[in-house]
Amino acid sequence: MIISGLLTSVAINFALCIIFFTLYSILRKQPGNYKVYAPRLLAAGKARRPRHFHFNRLLPTAGWIKNAWLPSEDDLLSYSGLDAVVFMRIITFSLKVFCIAGFIGIFILIPVNCSGNQLHDMDYINISNNSLEVFSISNVNNGSDSLWIHLGAVYFVTIVVCCLLYKEYKYIASKRIDYFCSSKPQPHQFTILVSNIPVRKGNTVRNSVENFFTENHPATYLSTVVVHRKSKVWTITNAVENLFSKIKNFRRVPNRHQYMHLDHLEQKLNEMEGSVRIDKSREEVRAAFVSFKSRYGAAIAINMLQGNNPTQWLTEQAPEPQDVYWPFFSSTFMGRWISKLTVIFSCAFVTIVFLIPVFIVQGLTNLAQLETYFPSLKNILTMKIVSQVITGYLPNLILQVSLKIVPPIMKGISSQQGYISVSEIERSACHKVIWFTVWNVFFANVLSASAFSLLFILLEFKDIPSKLAVSVPAQASFFIAYVVTTGWTSTSSELFRVIPFVASLICKPCNRKKNEFTVPSFRYHQDIPKILFFGLLGFAYFFLAPLIIPFLLGYFCLAYIIYRNQLLNVYAPRYESAGKFWPVVHDSTIFSLVLMQFIAFGIFTLKKLPHATSATLPLPIITLLFNEYCRKRFLPIFMAYSTETLLKKDKADQYYPDMPQFLEQISAAYQDPALAPMVYSASSDNLREPLIPTAQVRG
Amino acid sequence: MIISGLLTSVAINFALCIIFFTLYSILRKQPGNYKVYAPRLLAAGKARRPRHFHFNRLLPTAGWIKNAWLPSEDDLLSYSGLDAVVFMRIITFSLKVFCIAGFIGIFILIPVNCSGNQLHDMDYINISNNSLEVFSISNVNNGSDSLWIHLGAVYFVTIVVCCLLYKEYKYIASKRIDYFCSSKPQPHQFTILVSNIPVRKGNTVRNSVENFFTENHPATYLSTVVVHRKSKVWTITNAVENLFSKIKNFRRVPNRHQYMHLDHLEQKLNEMEGSVRIDKSREEVRAAFVSFKSRYGAAIAINMLQGNNPTQWLTEQAPEPQDVYWPFFSSTFMGRWISKLTVIFSCAFVTIVFLIPVFIVQGLTNLAQLETYFPSLKNILTMKIVSQVITGYLPNLILQVSLKIVPPIMKGISSQQGYISVSEIERSACHKVIWFTVWNVFFANVLSASAFSLLFILLEFKDIPSKLAVSVPAQASFFIAYVVTTGWTSTSSELFRVIPFVASLICKPCNRKKNEFTVPSFRYHQDIPKILFFGLLGFAYFFLAPLIIPFLLGYFCLAYIIYRNQLLNVYAPRYESAGKFWPVVHDSTIFSLVLMQFIAFGIFTLKKLPHATSATLPLPIITLLFNEYCRKRFLPIFMAYSTETLLKKDKADQYYPDMPQFLEQISAAYQDPALAPMVYSASSDNLREPLIPTAQVRG
């Protein structure tokens, strides 16, 4: 990419950001847009329509920034939950790391880089078109001792990041325990999901579960809710509902012929109801929510092998009631397994398909190549402004749009993997999106410059560092543009909420119910990978081309204010995983560190400084050992609570006055919403009631 | 290797076997050799010196074979434990598999192989020297359709082995549960080992443990035994003992001057005793055996995360008291970790060092090469008998001797890995020896023919099948000789117990205490890898060169009788892991299967039958999925007992009359034998007692 292209990109995006900010600060004050910009406040009754019109409403103001800045972490915790706090801490962690790395980069490495003259010696490089490279490591002379400063910087940043990671992991782990200790009794703390329940002939699932748990957990067992297969019952339910509305219509317009028909229909309804009842016993899935009298009792049932056949009586922590993903209860052991295998193949397929836009992007950044493919475009392409837009802005726009659709796709794939809660699905999708981004944005972009066959490159393992060392610095300006486009603009558009805003504009005329709106939930699987990927870019480039860091810092500052604002005004937490996203963040930061060290290894080999090359070797080993230690030290805390904590909490509950009432209501919390009993025909009153199946408490 | 060399080897080894059998059947009847050939019977008082001399004693008889054959599996179970049964089942499993594979190999594949004429077409191969190859797959014509029969055989054997493996895993898992259910209450079932105990300042380890468990497991906690560091206390103990014997000597020869000296010494003794007492409180290691009132209580403490810091309060099942490996209680979390890393490096080092004898062996099998290196040996080497011994017998002898010392080395390495029981050490050593054997005997021998640099071969992953396809059939006769030498002879020498026999001969004249002898324990880590390796050879060769199977079957029959005999007469079980060796066997059989499939893949590529090549591809995938299923289905049973089983057993114990007494004695079982309190000076009576520290029951 040529430098003017980069500048064009920065200019366009800066302008877009300003526009978004201005528009937002005006539009958010219009009561008609409260649904878009403050649905959460509206739902809480905090956003009220002003009585009088102020001219102030039409001026852009920055008051919202202050409002987003002011609340403390504890306020955020009590308002949006621990997951939101963890999310914000990813941003502050990145800010801390890149302030330090940026300081080293700008004030130490850039002067060193500029003092070299490797690029001047190589006459065949057109300096004017690559002037950014003067600030990069490429300009340091081969074999120069000043490369030791770069090595020192890599060591220093590795150590700083490890210390910060350790501190952060420890902090979030303690927050997680505190959060649990200060939480009110919640149904999911007392409940487990049992799957693959063995049922003897002539016995029901409910009986099997009750027998098993009253025998093996007599002191703590409380109640059981058996899960039902949705699809078939749904079909019948829908049929009944259709029939029901037909009858209703008939009653409204009574005439003799139709009354006869009505009798026939009511008979049919009775039959169907019978079949629903029979079907319910038949359609019990071999899974059940089992509740216990204490958290410790539930934890014991989760951690111990229950039956002598380890594929039966599988136990896991129940998700929060509102977090349960009802459509997918693949109850058999083999079913879950097969769906897992299918998911792996789907992911591979999606990854390969998405290489196509990446290669288009690569083609655009190499205009010369494009000209050879499409000679007819030559006249247009040689226009300066066109070439600048094409090389600077267009590639990133294509990438950005194609990447926008990846998180929903990955979530769709994850939902087929047999997870029983939305939070698990989003966590799994988060993993998938991270690796997809690293693979398809970073590696595909970096390496396709040298070869199109990515897989074959990665098979030749020992050549990777040197290949990265050649290609990564060459893509510095591309990724600066990426930070500016995808980082700045897409974050500002997150503030502006382009799609919901446009949707509300379109729906306004045709929407009759004015007070209907939904409070969206935060899409962690979309935004966490984005932030982590910018972190990866920062690590990969901070010692190669430190010029990227200021742009990154700008992004993180933007993200800090904007996401805080959105968490406070727009999104309501749908579930609370109590910080379970942090291990994902930790792992991918470690990956970024090791990638940085590999690139350093390759660079020092390339720059002919063998001693520095061997001096980098201990770094990945130390980093991975550190990671291993953290896995053992902190990860178990994110998997389960300790005996100590559980017992303390259970003891504290003895003094909680509503406890008996709470225990009675637990099983009602896990009622499958699609499966509440329907009694339409029994009394004719029902026919006038709205068509909402009422939930009954079972067990 | 030339065919006459192979015949020589078979002849020598057959003769050796006959000699060993004859000698054994005579020597075992001499009362002087009871210590060597029936120490277990002797210890049980079942082997009595005959009153009169019978001439029969000097004749070889085969009565012992009948005695070894007759006992049923249940007899063996009650006499030698479940581990011995599992060991014998490895042999019977191999016998079953190779009877089927041998039938296919001999009656289907050999006729097919012989009908080909690939080798006749290639004039440059000297048939007379390679006549064994006529029976092997090398003789089948390239592209011949009869290779599909080989593919069918590979499929058939894979399916048969998977079925047998599943059946066997299921059988042993059920045996394991039965064994547990029928066992008497044993201390280790009620006890856990807690390590990395956090201790506050001014508190002892004992207090910390007692506080923690009385608070968190009030209903089930029973008692605590804190572990002490051995080395330093041992030093002081030895010093006290020395001093004590000095005083004793002085008292025997009383005179005035010495009495004064004696006073001085007694004063010193008092001081030292004080220091031992102080030292004991200081030398508490942060590990303790904690006992519970029920098995279920202990299991809960093992499976649950105890403290909020997952590196503290680590819990694991306690080993049987006699199985505890006292010298190594690396109590810190980091200590265990570092020792694990060290062990990995030591293993790699040992593996590399042992490549040297392998290459010597390779040199010997290629005599021509040896002649070029040492021209002066030419005259000797051209003598027929010398060349036959050198190519046929010597290489295997070298391998056998060098492999003999590997199991003890691996056990030594494993003992530094932080395991706290001998059984775990031996199981870990078993793993190490298996991989060592596969690597250094199979791969090194097979591949060194084509290249010395093994590592580089394995880095080029995709070439492995074709390389194996070329080199594995070429080594068929070498491995037949290996089966005959290492298999037949070393198993017969196991019967004859060469080293203990020679040792007893040497010791007899200088051994005063005639009745002293030790009952050895079975070295599972030495014999299981041997059997598994022969299994691997069988799988690798059954469709390449089926001629190896009869030799293998001979070996397994020998092994069946001999090991049964030894388990009944010689070895006493030192510990009972209740079948925990079986998962090792399962995994390595799966490895052998996949290796066979890889070789098949390579062979079909080499033989230019592309459809057959692609038809082998599903095989490893199916096999690995099968393995994954078995891991989930059976492995957890070998890790822990289920709630169901534990509660059933605990309930049954309520009717066991000695239960209260048993619970009282549990903590005494885990007394560190080196650490019993010493009170020598308190009463002068003690001075006349023998110097055996008496064990006191604590806690």
UniProtKB/TrEMBL annotation, chains A, B:
<keyword id="KW-1133">Transmembrane helix</keyword>
<feature type="transmembrane region" description="Helical">
    <location>
        <begin position="86"/>
        <end position="110"/>
    </location>
</feature>
<dbReference type="GO" id="GO:0005227">
    <property type="term" value="F:calcium-activated cation channel activity"/>
</dbReference>
<keyword id="KW-0813">Transport</keyword>
<keyword id="KW-0406">Ion transport</keyword>
<dbReference type="Pfam" id="PF14703">
    <property type="entry name" value="PHM7_cyt"/>
</dbReference>
<feature type="transmembrane region" description="Helical">
    <location>
        <begin position="147"/>
        <end position="166"/>
    </location>
</feature>
<feature type="domain" description="CSC1/OSCA1-like cytosolic">
    <location>
        <begin position="189"/>
        <end position="327"/>
    </location>
</feature>
<dbReference type="Pfam" id="PF02714">
    <property type="entry name" value="RSN1_7TM"/>
</dbReference>
<feature type="domain" description="CSC1/OSCA1-like 7TM region">
    <location>
        <begin position="340"/>
        <end position="604"/>
    </location>
</feature>
<dbReference type="InterPro" id="IPR045122">
    <property type="entry name" value="Csc1-like"/>
</dbReference>
<feature type="transmembrane region" description="Helical">
    <location>
        <begin position="6"/>
        <end position="27"/>
    </location>
</feature>
<feature type="transmembrane region" description="Helical">
    <location>
        <begin position="479"/>
        <end position="507"/>
    </location>
</feature>
<feature type="transmembrane region" description="Helical">
    <location>
        <begin position="531"/>
        <end position="563"/>
    </location>
</feature>
<dbReference type="Pfam" id="PF13967">
    <property type="entry name" value="RSN1_TM"/>
</dbReference>
<feature type="transmembrane region" description="Helical">
    <location>
        <begin position="433"/>
        <end position="459"/>
    </location>
</feature>
<dbReference type="GO" id="GO:0005886">
    <property type="term" value="C:plasma membrane"/>
</dbReference>
<keyword id="KW-0407">Ion channel</keyword>
<feature type="transmembrane region" description="Helical">
    <location>
        <begin position="385"/>
        <end position="406"/>
    </location>
</feature>
<dbReference type="InterPro" id="IPR003864">
    <property type="entry name" value="CSC1/OSCA1-like_7TM"/>
</dbReference>
<feature type="transmembrane region" description="Helical">
    <location>
        <begin position="341"/>
        <end position="365"/>
    </location>
</feature>
<keyword id="KW-0106">Calcium</keyword>
<comment type="similarity">
    <text>Belongs to the CSC1 (TC 1.A.17) family.</text>
</comment>
<dbReference type="InterPro" id="IPR032880">
    <property type="entry name" value="CSC1/OSCA1-like_N"/>
</dbReference>
<dbReference type="InterPro" id="IPR027815">
    <property type="entry name" value="CSC1/OSCA1-like_cyt"/>
</dbReference>
<keyword id="KW-0472">Membrane</keyword>
<keyword id="KW-0812">Transmembrane</keyword>
<protein>
    <submittedName>
        <fullName>Uncharacterized protein</fullName>
    </submittedName>
</protein>
<feature type="domain" description="CSC1/OSCA1-like N-terminal transmembrane">
    <location>
        <begin position="6"/>
        <end position="168"/>
    </location>
</feature>
<feature type="transmembrane region" description="Helical">
    <location>
        <begin position="583"/>
        <end position="604"/>
    </location>
</feature>
